[in-house]
Design goal:
This protein is of the alpha+beta class and 341 residues long. The protein folds into two domains: 214 residues, Cation efflux protein transmembrane domain (Alpha-lytic protease prodomain-like), CATH 1.20.1510; 117 residues, Alpha-Beta Plaits, CATH 3.30.70. Helices cover 54% and strands 11% of the residues. Helix 3 packs parallel to helix 5. It is elongated, with a radius of gyration of 26 Å. The two termini are 41 Å apart.
Length: 341
């Protein structure tokens, strides 16, 4: 009796998460720049009495902390990628760090709003010339950081994927981990690196605060509208909360294993059901890392094939790195269209 070695079918679940991402290096550079600028702006804000400038410096302090979380997430993801306790690798650490960063953004935006309200009640004298100069310097620094981070938040790092097989029987399974995961033939909205995107949002919020501070200080100096200084702090806080909400939602979708975008699920369903009387009776597709998805597909057919056969039907452009196919023989299902879950 011929016995095939199982060694050829074993595979890891690192999915390239053990490789150093370009976003990690860029984030570290931005942390250093942000920390130095933070110290300068806080000192200037206190010295010159500008709430807008002080808010900008405090904001940079919050973002330096958030960026540190992003850097640690990259490091932890890479170092723990081969830890078998993570069922589908460490890719979700990316979204967990992004969620935490988004919460920090909201909290510091609330602090900004509160401080601005207090300045409405108890105005303080402002040294406009120095405050404007430092605010412009802060805006320039933020612009440089935005260029460094890139602003796309998409993962372009290549993963190495292996192959695996399931067993034979009434319930058959196939695992397919191949290079089609990072084909860009099928772009999806949720493929961004949440960790890098959160870092970008923090710096973008800094740039916005600096810009608003400049307008407020110019209005106060030349038009005598000193109320613009605290007002801009409130306006900036409101916009930052809005940005944070989007990041909270997208990262929470990954953490809660919500279904992948409809276009991915529909592509899988169409590819399977175009052949014979194949019907997808159950379908679950969820993100396991930036731009990579796992899928469980249950196929009902009157003429069942090997699980690998159905895996090969899937479009090569789908970002799937771990696919399980379950095949059910159902002679009476010929021509029927069960609803997929």
């Amino acid at each position: 009796m011929h016995t095939e070695s199982i060694e050829g079918w074993l595979h890891s679940h690192t999915f390239g998460q053990d490789q150093k991402k370009s976003g990690e290096r860029r984030t570290l550079i931005v942390i250093v720049i942000t920390a130095v600028t933070m110290v300068v702006e806080i000192a200037a804000g206190i010295a010159f009495g500008s709430m807008a400038l002080l808010a900008d410096g405090l904001h940079m302090g919050s973002h330096a902390s958030a960026l540190a979380i992003s850097a640690f997430a990259y490091y932890y993801t890479r170092r723990r990628a081969k830890d078998a306790r993570f069922n589908f690798g460490t890719g979700k650490v990316n979204s967990l760090a992004a969620f935490a960063s988004a919460v920090m953004l909201v909290l510091f935006a609330l602090v900004m709003a509160w401080e601005s309200i207090q300045r409405f009640v108890s105005p303080v004298p402002i040294e406009f010339n120095w405050a404007i100069l430092v605010a412009i310097a802060g805006l320039v620094v933020n612009g440089v950081c935005l260029v460094i981070l890139g602003g796309h938040g998409h993962s372009h790092d290549k993963d190495e994927h292996e192959h695996g097989k399931g067993d034979d029987g009434h319930h058959q399974h196939a695992h397919e981990d191949d290079h089609k995961a990072h084909s860009h033939e099928h772009p999806v909205s949720e493929s961004r690196d949440h960790n890098l995107w959160s870092a970008y949002l923090h710096v973008l919020a800094d740039a916005l605060t600096s810009l608003l501070a400049i307008f407020a200080l110019l209005g106060g100096k030349y038009l005598g509208q000193v109320w613009l200084d605290p007002f801009m702090g409130i306006a900036g806080a409101a916009l930052i909360v809005s940005w944070s909400w989007g990041l909270l939602r997208s990262s929470a979708h990954v953490l809660l294993d919500m279904q992948a975008p409809d276009e991915i699920r529909e592509s899988i369903k169409r590819a399977i059901e175009t052949e014979g009387d194949n019907r997808v009776s159950d379908l679950h597709v969820w993100a396991v890392g930036p731009g990579i998805y796992s899928a469980e597909i249950a196929v009902v057919t009157s003429i069942p094939q090997e699980p690998d056969h159905y895996s090969e039907l899937l479009p090569r452009g789908l970002p799937l790195i771990h696919v399980t196919v379950e095949v059910h023989r159902c002679p009476s299902c010929n021509g029927q269209h069960p609803t997929s879950g």
